[in-house]
Amino acid sequence: MSNFFTSKLKNLTPYTPGEQPKDMQYIKLNTNESPFAPSKAVSEAVLNESKKLQLYSDPECTNVRRELARVYGVDTNQVIVTNGSDEVLNFAFMAFADEKNPLVFPNITYGFYPVFAELNRIPYTEIPLKDDFTVDINDYIRVNKTVVIANPNAPTGIALTLQEIEKIVSSNPNNVVIIDEAYVDFGAESAVSLVGKYDNLLVVQTFSKSRSMAGARLGFAIGNKSLIADLNTIRYSTNPYNVNRMTDAAGAAALIDNDYYMNNCKTIIDNREWTVAKLQKLDFEVLASKANFVFAKNDKIDGEKLYLELKNRGILVRHFTKPAICQYNRITIGTLEQMQKLIETITLILEEN
Predict the structure, then answer these.
(1) CATH superfamily of 18-37+259-352
(2) What predicted TM-score, i.e. pTM, was given to this entire model?
């Protein structure tokens, strides 16, 4: 840290992204990327736009917003498009939370929430999950704070029902409820159907997971048009060209090919259920996931040791050091061949231990 770094941020602990080692070829099951390539139309769209990089991108992201509105059955003025869903989450924290409207979210969830809160100097409360790692919705009923819930949650993969989400939203009419649905396409219920009913609901999603575009950096939020206008005020005050030409075109093409991606999600769900069954046969405890990953532990081996043993053998999974979850590893669901290799390797590790 330099002597010039502002004192108001000197205690900021940044988010730690999943590791991306380059020392060997790994089976990457640590960052929840899709194992499937984008559709051909997406690649063609990117190539076409790459020839126009001398021109600024469309600040309104007209094409991708139009396709999002079509796919999700909303108006274009109910949609904002951003540089990954992290950007719109940051905008939402800035727009809808402050000292009078502090934040509240689970203590085990997406690690960027406390970072964004600290960065924007917003007071926040972390509410413990129940012993089974589920969110107790009663903790959020009439809490009268800006609520942030990842659904399905990360890193557990456990999802709330749409009825549970609605109870939280309806009981906090004077505060915005942000539902982060990064993994919703893998078996959970989206709250987008509620945005026309509640003007305090903001639903955030991403193209990174279910639409094979983690490297493109494209996210979006859907909500009441007034909420979206608030977010655009911040976007136009920071970076109106936040989505580049190639990503904008790729997003629109992906939505036109939406069936391709949703079928891939079904394959990942099938692979997830296969993996869960195999892990359970190896005496793993596996949480009930509705995401493209599973969260699992085995009492026969320390969680960090299993992570390191797998890494040494060319398989990356995600390990967390918080005491409540340090015995678990988060395992991204890849192709069936990748999951078969994972199970074979874990079996060998357990036999050796």
Answers:
(1) Aspartate Aminotransferase, domain 1 (3.90.1150.10)
(2) 0.96
